[in-house]
UniProtKB/TrEMBL annotation:
All residue ranges annotated as the Topo IA-type catalytic domain in the record: 175-602
Function: Introduces a single-strand break via transesterification at a target site in duplex DNA. Releases the supercoiling and torsional tension of DNA introduced during the DNA replication and transcription by transiently cleaving and rejoining one strand of the DNA duplex. The scissile phosphodiester is attacked by the catalytic tyrosine of the enzyme, resulting in the formation of a DNA-(5'-phosphotyrosyl)-enzyme intermediate and the expulsion of a 3'-OH DNA strand.
Classification via SMART domains: TOP1Ac
Recorded catalytic activity of this chain's protein: ATP-independent breakage of single-stranded DNA, followed by passage and rejoining
EC number(s) from the headed UniProt entry: 5.6.2.1
Coiled coil start-end: 824-851
Gene Ontology cellular component list: nucleus
Listed name of the protein: DNA topoisomerase
């Protein structure tokens, strides 16, 4: 091998800038300050350090996550509506924007580097970061360069610990199976998230204007089960029914005060049954009702209260959010800050087992100088020469549980609270178990059994330092065995039901830990993703409340398929990878089987691909759930996609060749063909709601050409399920003037409605004339001026119902026939007034219906009066 050039530099890579700064202060020379170079967001610390008895030039910098991130090609991301292709498309890896300046620096200065030292804690993500970096550097260096890769193993940023481990550098050896599993999980999450996110973003923003402010409506196979837990707790609180419980309350006076016995049956809902039980327990003596009790049993036993397990991240988040009243995100931020300053060990760990050769005594000795719990640490050192904490079930040989590495009495505010919690928890885990004596008394009131427990702590041990789990002595009352006593208080009490609260962060983390979600110590990151995507909000710095968007999304997917939002499918995927990794570690035969990982990936991608197909087919469930959660749906959203608006198609039948009919939009986004001279001509063809889009073609209708008409053919797009068999496929190519199929399809119902409205108008006119005659004859009820106003408004309503102007015509949708609206001479003045007012069509229809209902009721009353008068 070629000798290493000693003039070249040594590069140290860390995960955060704070770690780089801390390592530079520890490893650098105290006499010389480090030189800091900045280039396009990249900060490089240059310092000198003695390595292998020689002073070498060193550099320390940060790599922000994976050097290359997976993604799809640019031409694939744009305007792609085949969502199933996301599950099969080739994925490219490109240098991330955060690490672009680092990659450019390596390209320019790789020849000046002899060693690369990875200062990372072990986890699958860090393994992938290191392997990607090695692959990238190998493509840059020459074969003769002889670049070496080393790793420094450390658990905290204490100066003594760092100096010891820097002199014990090891050759970097990647764990291939963990690297492949991490790449497989990242590919799975990318494909599923991209497919569902793009589909639901385009679909929901198309119908709901409120959601167009969001850049994207994010979907993730891990976030959806977490969101469902939050929505379920909210639904329980919303749908809570107050049903009271009933119980028997038995109290007795003693020398130490009144004591309360617990009923063995606890509680019942049926008050009638409780009244029967209460009656059975009563004794009548001299017209008095008494209750007598007799002690039948007394047992005493010693109970061992186990000390807590070593602290890991889930336990820290659960306990600290509960006792310290801080949010989970705040607790993790403070813990990472304390780690960067060298006060605690690496916090992102799930292991709850210390190794056998761990040095507990030196860590406990560091806390002796603390003013609050220093005396307890000193007593612990003197009493126990050998400390052996309890061991949990989660074992990781690369990471240790969380423990304090310095004394932190000078810390302030929240930092002091979190550090004291970690230090006290560590001292409690190193203490002995507590011992308690428990005595249980059983009392019988007729056939009902009641119990009372007396507790006395014999040895406190870890309770002295662990104030978060409180316990107090309960004195033992003096009762004689098999001797009856009169009950001091025996009542039937009503227990009001407790309204369920929103799920707290501590409870949610505990539920997710039991389910197996967030086993990569990213539970807090998942919760912050939910809050960033406007799915949840944090209430009172403790409870998680879903937003309207989060509730609508979960309810919609549950309407389609409840398995989609359940964690079972993703847990099956992670458990299969976890089992495979353990088999490969303990059995070398499985390593050569390269077809297992792609098979697991393809099977799980196929499941989510089937889910997406089902969602696209039953998407009306999402629309219903969003409407239910107060999202206003936009009518006919597809009309705005019509690119050929205001493009002339054929000549107006009223204006002649001078004006052309073109595609327009009504106020409620309905498609129509309107005349270009709309101020003078109100000729229109209104399209049915099922037509979503109209594209004008360059071809002309041959049939209309023989009649002397210049009409352009169009492509008509229909909503799914509305297109009849004889018009398929969609888009349907046809003429808006002479196509009989289109006329027959959209003409029948509208004609029936027109005929019914005309008949009702005629009947209303006849009834109105009779009404006016009746009023004029009797000289009662309504003056003559009002009757003239009613007749005038009636003519206005007739004109509005037929959508006509002065001398205008109405066209049925896609019908070339014209219905002439010739009104009486008396109504010409009202038509002119209507055209001048230009009132809205929809509001006039509503006004017409309301007036018509009032006139019908008025006519019926007049007919009854006329009939009664004729009888008399």
């Amino acid at each position: 091998m070629n000798k290493v050039d000693k003039t070249r530099k040594i590069l140290l890579l860390t995960s955060t800038e704070q770690t780089s700064n801390r390592l530079t202060k520890i490893l650098g020379d105290d006499l010389e300050q480090p030189i800091i170079k900045q280039m396009q967001g990249l900060r490089i610390y240059n310092f000198k350090k003695v390595y292998k008895r020689e002073k070498r030039q060193m550099m320390c910098t940060t790599i922000c996550g994976p050097l290359k991130i997976p993604g799809f090609a640019n031409n694939y991301n744009k305007n792609n509506r085949r969502w199933d292709r996301y599950f099969k498309k080739y994925i490219e890896k490109r240098v991330s924007q955060e690490n672009y300046s680092l990659s450019q620096y390596l390209i320019a200065n790789i020849h000046n580097i002899s060693f690369i030292i990875f200062c990372f804690h072990y986890c699958p993500l860090n393994e992938a970061i290191c392997q990607q970096f090695v692959n990238f550097v190998d493509t840059l260096q020459n074969k003769q360069q002889n670049l070496k890769y080393l790793r420094m193993k450390y658990h905290d940023l204490n100066a003594k610990h760092i100096m010891e481990n820097f002199n014990k550098l090891e050759n970097f050896q990647i764990n291939q199976i963990h690297y492949k599993i991490h790449n497989l999980k990242s590919e799975f999450n990318l494909r599923v998230s991209k497919a569902f996110t793009d589909w639901q973003t385009r679909f929901l923003q198309k119908y709901f204007r409120d959601l167009r402010q969001c850049k994207k409506i994010f979907f993730s196979p891990t976030l959806l089960p977490i969101l469902k837990q939050i929505v379920t707790s909210y639904a329980k609180q919303l749908n809570f029914i107050q049903e009271p419980y009933y119980t028997l309350n038995f109290e007795q006076n003693t020398l130490d005060g009144p004591i309360k016995f617990k009923w063995k049956r606890k509680r019942l809902r049926d008050r009638y049954v409780m009244a029967i039980l209460m009656e059975k327990c009563t004794i009548k003596e001299a017209e008095n009702f008494l209750f007598k009790a007799k002690m039948t049993k007394q047992t005493t036993k010693d109970v061992i209260l186990e000390r807590p397990l070593p602290l890991n991240l889930p336990t820290l988040l659960i306990k600290a959010t509960k006792y310290l009243k801080l949010s989970a995100k705040r607790v993790l931020t403070i813990a990472e800050h304390l780690y960067q300053e060298g006060y605690i060990s690496y916090p992102r760990t799930r292991t709850n087992c210390f190794p056998k050769d761990f040095d507990f005594l030196n860590l406990i000795a560091l806390q002796v100088s603390n003013p609050t719990y220093g005396l307890y640490a000193n007593d612990l050192l003197q009493e126990n020469s050998k400390i052996i904490p309890r061991n949990g079930t989660i074992v990781d040989h690369f990471l240790h549980p969380i423990y304090p590495t310095q004394e932190g009495s000078h810390l302030k505010k929240d930092n002091r609270l979190v550090f004291d919690f970690i230090a006290k928890y560590f001292l409690a885990a190193c203490s002995n178990d507590a011992l308690m004596s428990k005595t249980t008394i059983t009392m019988m009131v007729k056939e009902e059994e009641f119990t009372f427990s007396s507790k006395k702590i014999i040895a406190k041990n870890f309770f002295e330092i662990h104030p978060y789990k409180k316990w107090k002595d309960i004195p033992l009352p003096n009762f004689m065995l098999n001797v009856e006593i009169v009950c001091y208080k025996f009542t039937l009490d009503t227990i009001p039901p407790k309204k369920p609260t929103l799920i707290s962060e501590a409870k949610l983390i505990k539920v997710l830990e039991n389910q197996g979600i967030g086993i990569d110590c990213k539970i807090v990151d998942h919760l912050s993703d939910l809050e960033r995507n406007n799915y949840t909000t944090l209430k009172n710095n403790k409870y998680l409340e879903p937003t309207e968007l989060g509730r609508a999304l979960i309810e919609g997917y549950d309407r389609i398929d409840q398995q989609l939002s359940s964690p079972n499918h993703y847990l099956e995927f992670e458990s299969a990878l976890f089992i495979l990794a353990n088999e490969i570690i303990h059995n070398n035969r499985v390593i050569n089987n390269n077809g297992v990982l792609p098979e697991i990936l393809n099977n799980n991608l196929q499941k989510y691909s089937d889910f997406l197909k089902k969602v696209t087919q039953r998407k009306r469930g999402l629309l219903y759930s969003f409407q239910k959660n107060k999202f206003t749906i936009e009518k006919n959203p597809n009309r705005k996609q019509c690119k050929d608006l205001y493009r002339p198609i054929f000549s107006c039948t009223r204006c002649g060749i001078k004006k052309k009919m073109s595609i327009k939009l009504t106020k409620d986004n309905r498609l129509m063909f309107g005349c270009a001279g709309w101020k003078d001509c109100h000729t229109a063809i209104y399209c049915h709601d099922c037509i979503t889009k109209i594209d004008v073609m360059n071809e002309k209708c041959s049939i209309c050409k023989t009649k002397g008409l210049d009409v352009v053919l169009c492509n008509f797009f229909f909503e799914p399920g509305y297109l009849p068999v004889f018009l398929q496929p969609s888009p349907y190519k046809g003429c808006p003037c002479c196509d009989g199929n289109l006329n027959e399809f959209l003409k029948r119902d509208i004609l029936k409605k027109e005929e019914e409205s005309e008949e009702s108008d005629e009947s209303d006119e006849s009834e109105e004339s009779e009404e006016s005659d009746e009023i004029n004859d009797n000289n009662a009820l309504i003056p003559q001026k009002n009757s003239q106003k009613q007749s005038q408004s009636r003519s206005q309503r007739l004109t509005r119902n037929r959508r006509s102007g002065q001398g205008s015509h109405i066209f049925h949708p896609f019908s070339h026939s014209v219905i002439d609206n010739r009104l009486n001479e008396n109504s010409n003045q009202t038509i002119i007034n209507l055209n001048n007012n230009k009132q809205n069509l929809t509001s006039s229809n509503h006004d017409e219906q309301r007036k018509r209902r009032g006139q019908v009721t008025l006519n019926t009353n007049l007919q009854k009066r006329k009939y009664n008068n004729s009888k008399k």
